[in-house]
Amino acid sequence: MTRSIHLVTEIPGPQSKILVARRHAATPAGLAHSTGVAVSHAHGALVTDVDGNTLIDMAGGIGMLNVGHTPEAVVEAIRDQAGKLIHSCALVTTYEPYVELCEKLNAAAPGHFTKKTLLSNSGSEAVENAVNLARYYTGRQGVMCFDGAYHGRSQLALSLTSKYALFKKGFGPFSGEVYRVATPNVYRGPAGLDEEAFIDWTIAEFDNALIARVDPAGVAAVIIEPVQGEAGFVPIPQRFMEHLRKRCDEHGMVLIADEVQAGMGRTGKLFSIEHTGVVPDVIVTAKSLGAGMPIAAVIGRADVMDSAHKGGVGGTFGGNPVACRAAIEALNQIQSPEFQQRAHEVGERMRLRLESWREKFPLVGDVRGVGPMRLVEFVRDRDTKTPAPDETLEIIQRAVAAGLILIRAGLYSNCIRLLPPIVITDEQLEEALDVLEAAIAAQ
């Protein structure tokens, strides 16, 4: 097998260390980085650092690079658009890339109803727009969210986000009228309850919250990641999603699916909620929508999207024409049958390999995910499920030194998430998994 990893220095190398030192001097301490790698250039699933080392990217920009680094069609579209129109602002003029992208997203999103799309710059901004529109449409203020959720770092989005110590500590006060309820994380359910009983329990907890914490007549929206990202790639069971849809229909609450990390083909379908058959009222997407360019979208029922007064939504950079062209080309690739088949193949290879680790290594407590969105959770004891964050960090450091780019996840920071570009080759994927397996075995 031809190896893709090529190391000419230690990782991080001397030039990477110099650039990272400059970064520390010039940027806030809170801007963390999971590796010491300083990137020079990249293509597909391979990254070359400033020392000339070639590494395999298994983090994918935290899910931004489903179509890979510098895909040719996207790069050419960016070049072409930059020579025509870089910016004019959708609040001032109309330009075709904005309209075309919205048309494509309206057609692609699930649901047999008329849809409209609003473009913005980031997942956080899109989440805030989605909640604002739900509040305007319903005339209500309350928003229900879930343990483990990650919805962004702006004020309202951060208020909806979980994992307090990492994301929220010191940043309060947070927005009011936010009601957090239990997530059906079946791996970490209460002792003595099997999977189905635990799902029943979380359904009952959700219904109890509509009595004990907030009246449904005061709830504008229920927002949920169909596969939670930062919490540790927790797939929400179909039965739980169906129950949310039922309650939202009963009480006039808007169901918002946050597809920022799990969407755009990452789970083998365009949107991860499609695995459940549940149709949300509004979808939020970003990350891989732009193939690395900053763009996000809120796609929703036309009556919800049209509810705000003229001038009530939008922003200076939202739907920038260069980012729109990149997104159009990325979406064309993601929607192709060849890409969807490749996502299935990559997901199956990852699933089979990770499941073998659960048999080999007592430190591996669980492996899970959907399609090529996969994760390994490390525990010190399988019976107590005591998290192993220090061991997880050591494994990552060992794997990075051997040529992988990786990042952690999970409420306890005891998981390694795998989000390789879906265009990764079989040989590159196997090589990457070999390196990670060796790093686990050495622990």
Count of strand segments: 18
Euclidean distance between termini CA atoms: 26 Å
Helix fraction bin: 25-40%
The 3D shape can be described as globular
Radius of gyration: 22 Å
The CATH topology assignment of one domain is Aspartate Aminotransferase, domain 2
- CATH structural class of one domain: Alpha Beta
Number of helices: 14
Question: Within the largest sheet, what's the order of strands?
Answer: 4-12-11-10-7-5-6
The CATH homologous superfamily name of one domain equals: Type I PLP-dependent aspartate aminotransferase-like (Major domain)
Major sheet, described briefly? 7 strands, mixed
Low-confidence stretches: none
Give me the CATH architecture of one domain, please: 3-Layer(aba) Sandwich
Helix and strand content put the structural class at: alpha/beta
Mean pLDDT: 97
Strand content: 15-25%
GO molecular function: 5-aminovalerate transaminase activity; identical protein binding; pyridoxal phosphate binding
EC number: 2.6.1.48
Keywords: Aminotransferase, Pyridoxal phosphate, Transferase
Cofactor: pyridoxal 5'-phosphate
Structure at a glance:
Belongs to the class-III pyridoxal-phosphate-dependent aminotransferase family. This protein has helices at 14-26, 60-63, 72-82, 96-108, 123-138, 155-160, 164-167, 195-212, 238-251, 302-305, 321-334, 337-360, 389-401, 426-441, and strands at residues 39-43, 46-49, 54-57, 115-120, 142-146, 178-181, 219-224, 227-228, 234-235, 254-258, 282-285, 296-301, 364-370, 373-381, 386-387, 404-405, 407-409, 415-418.
